[in-house]
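Hey, resending since the last one bounced:
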Amino acid sequence: MNFPAHVKQILWDVDTRALKPARHKKFIITRIAEKGAWSDVRWLKKMFGTNAIKKAVVGSRNTSAKTKSFWRLF
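The structure tokens again:
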């Protein structure tokens, strides 16, 4: 997958060339939802859609209560 430069900064500790959207969807979504800026979230919504983001974030143990509360509003 070809990630934009602003998203690669959030995924700095992994080889983004090896990430596959179908296989690593939850990791990509939760990392960007937790650490990303609004521009990153807009990209995330285009890639996966609001429902997939909400499901991944709310069901994750790796996201903060603040992030979960935000996504529950959608």
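The CA atoms of residues 30 and 60 lie 7 Å apart.

Sorry for the duplicate.
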